[in-house]
């Protein structure tokens, strides 16, 4: 059985967006989402 890891990045006031850009990750198609308990639990598989 192969498990694909997932990561959950949480930032305040888009602070993480500029950090991602400094390492060349294109996140222009991404939109901010509300942090929910379900999202946290899904990233902890």
TrEMBL record:
InterPro entries referenced in this protein's UniProt entry, alphabetically: Ptyr_pPase_sf
Protein name, UniProt field: Arsenate reductase
């Amino acid at each position: 059985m192969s498990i694909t890891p997932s990561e959950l990045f949480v930032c305040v006031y888009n602070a993480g967006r500029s950090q991602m850009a400094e390492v060349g990750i294109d996140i222009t198609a991404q939109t901010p989402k509300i942090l929910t308990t379900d999202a946290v639990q899904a990233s902890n598989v």
